[in-house]
Amino acid sequence: MVKHFKLRNTKMNKPKERTLVILKPDAMHRGLLGEIISRFERKGISPVGMKMIKISNLLLDKHYAQHKGKHFLPKLKEFMMKLPVVVIVFEGLEVVRVTRAMCGPTDGKNAPTGTIRGDFSMSTSSTIVHSSEDVKAAKREISIFFKSSELFNYNRPDLDFYYAEDELS
């Protein structure tokens, strides 16, 4: 006999964060998009906006404004324009920190196994994924790639299985 259970009406009362993740041209070329998105979803992080774009020089100048004049920027921009990228806004509790941890350090050769870069990257340049470094950067980056009308609000009905009740209130 199969027992059926009812999910409680779960609503997250704690403030949720949003962060930007970019699946870079190397992720696109290697067919890793589904694998990477799946990792975030299995963790309980909700995508609230997603699109594939051919990133322009202008968008890259805005996104990488803090790196203006640095020696690596021209090659990085050239790399980012090779293929389309997928930009995603994820939402959840402490999502900026959690997402950064899941991505791993920039140097793929030294990133721990189990992180996205640790499992898929051997480079400091072709790093598979970008994630916002802090909440302030996330807000700035999200506004570069998304209009507010392209972002959605919803609560996952299965939050009970990702958080304890006291973590949600």
Secondary structure blueprint with pairings:
Blueprint: E1 17-23, H1 25-29, H2 33-43, E2 46-53, H3 57-63, H4 73-80, E3 85-92, H5 95-103, H6 116-120, E4 129-131, H7 135-145, H8 165-168
Antiparallel strand pairs: 1-3, 1-4, 2-3
Overview of the structural elements:
- The protein has 169 residues and is α+β, with helices and mostly antiparallel strands.
- It starts with 16 loop residues before the first strand and ends with a helix.
- It is built from 8 helices and 4 strands; from the N terminus they run βααβααβααβαα.
- A 4-stranded antiparallel β-sheet has the order 2-3-1-4.
- About 3% of the residues have low confidence.
- The protein has a single domain, classed as Nucleoside diphosphate kinase-like domain (Alpha-Beta Plaits), CATH 3.30.70.141.
Question: End-to-end span in angstroms?
Answer: 34 Å
Poorly predicted regions: 4-8
**Overall number of domains:** 1
Spatial order of the strands in the main sheet? 2-3-1-4
Helices and strands, in order, run as EHHEHHEHHEHH
Main sheet characteristics: 4 strands, antiparallel
Average pLDDT value?
92
Q: Report strand %.
A: 15-25%
Q: Any guess at the CATH architecture? A: 2-Layer Sandwich
What is the 3D shape? Answer: globular
CATH top level assignment: Alpha Beta
Using brief descriptors, characterize the structure shown.
169 residues; four-stranded antiparallel sheet; 36% helix; globular; alpha+beta; Alpha-Beta Plaits; 8 helices; 4 strands
